[in-house]
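REVIEWER CHECKLIST
Item 1: Sequence provided? yes
Item 2: Single chain? yes
Item 3: Sequence as submitted:
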Amino acid sequence: MATSLPTRVAAPYVASVRGLTRAFGDRTVLDGLDLAIARGEFVALLGRSGSGKSTLLRALAGLDRETTGELTVDGTVAVAFQEPRLLPWKRVIDNVALGLPRGADPRKALEEVGLGELAGAWPLTLSGGEAQRASLARALVREPGLLLLDEPFSALDALTRITMHRLVLDLWQRQDGLAVLLVTHDVDEALLLADRVLVLGEGRIAYESSVEAERPRRPQDLVTLRAELLLRLGVEEGTG
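Item 4: Structure as written out by the authors:
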């Protein structure tokens, strides 16, 4: 049965997936996957390279119509990718405004991510962190119910990554009902940000756990869960 997008799903879930399958030739990447994301929940999705993390994200975003199974989404979905994907011939404010109705003002979103003074800048003049902020503003300006983040911090230096982590958490906490699905390879990043951590393996959710520690989180509060996640990902303790 082909997936129909978008479809309404009753509260409290902003997205629900049942039996989702996606194959590329003879290779099945998603194999009957089930997942539900609650309204206002922050979920992190871990998995080894090629496990299907980005494939699932693309399906939720409506960018892959070749899946089978049931996929329902309530409200607007926005995506921020690993690469900011800003159009170099458009100024920052015009990049953020892409797809908005005529007359809509993207300045509020730029202010929220701290780029109000760079609205008229060209993308090539931005630092990596600034470009990723602009990409995030472009996603948030649509006031999504579900924000999909596809490894958006992986190309940033360590200090900029910390700043972006704090920014995303702040934006998520201030936007009532916003659900976030973060795809990442970084176990520590997942534990720092998410309410719930999932491990994708063999085309399905192979493991999941709530993250009970209060924010701001300390590494010593997450040692046991970190070790379990590394084990599930096939990483020996001490090499992660």
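Item 5: Key structural point noted by reviewer: Strands lie at 13-24, 27-38, 42-46, 68-73, 77-80, 146-150, 179-183, 196-201, 204-210.
Item 6: Recommendation: ____
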